[in-house]
């Protein structure tokens, strides 16, 4: 959201207020400072070992109060978090337009990712403005009955933020024959056996390959941190760090050879930096990267993880087929397109705050772009590796 906040604050006549939930407050503040932004309101609703229902209830009360007090002309939220789901519904109840940034991503399976797919579907029903990152996301929304005029294909603001920060980070030093993998794994649907299978696969890899380094910023949730320490904590080649701020995360992506992740945004960011992405999920709501050949879902099977990583490490052909620096998700100008659409909406007035009626003819949901090739934006980027020898070195919830 940082690029959107900055773009809107440049527009005359707008007062922009940034609302945070209090999740990972220090990381959020550090990240926002990277863009010269501070939160204006901290809802402070987070509790240790919270349940989804408990968090949702607290968010409804807190957002209801802030919307009643501020009476904004428009509410914006980004992505698929519980924060976005709640903010969209509260705005809907108050008959205030909700603008959904990163709209229209779908897997078609409410259990995967959980509960993010549900959160996106709800926001897709309550939003008045849908800022879709790709044509595939636009088609998903059209299938669900969203009117064409409410959808704006903008690219994803995550690429705006990435290119901004990456340009200010020096190129990493060469590491010779050492190979480095960045891993992020924390999805709720992977808790338990799936996550332990991932960790066992990583353990198999580093024990078999002394040249391999794993950098793993560990989510503080005990469902993640406890098995990570138990299964990986004794391995010298594995660095278990605290969660990284955004600048440090971008630097880690630039420095690694490839990425193992169950995260969403990294599936967009890492390919734009020329890093192959192996997705630790059975399905992804970001099919464009898969179609472009720069990301591959591999699930959480221990042996498949070892096999897929080994293939990329041992085959230059396989590696460089994925390390092409292709981004289907933006050209770095998404925020300005979003700001233009918001200014046009505000100029028309907000008397029609509710979403337009759904199309009369209902259609069964189908994944977009099932067979269509991705059409990447032309993104300026640094090459992941200037030369190609065999062993060369190549987020927080908020709404505004």
Notes on the structure:
- The protein has 400 residues and is an alpha/beta fold.
- It has two domains: 2-165 and 330-348, 3-Layer(aba) Sandwich (Rossmann fold); 173-327, Rossmann fold, CATH 3.40.50.2000.
- 41% of the residues lie in helices and 12% in strands.
- The chain has 15 helices and 13 strands.
- The chain has helices at residues 2-9, 25-34, 52-70, 82-93, 116-126, 135-143, 157-166, 193-208, 222-232, 246-255, 266-272, 287-291, 302-314, 316-322, 334-348, and strands at 19-20, 41-42, 75-78, 98-101, 129-132, 151-153, 179-184, 212-217, 238-241, 258-261, 277-279, 295-297, 398-399.
- The protein has a six-stranded parallel sheet, sandwiched between helices.
- Helix 2 links the parallel strand 1 (19-20) and strand 2.
- Helix 3 (52-70) packs across helix 4 (82-93) and helix 4 (82-93) packs parallel to helix 5 (116-126).
- The longest helix is centred in the first third of the chain and has 19 residues, at 52-70.
- It is globular, with a radius of gyration of 21 Å.
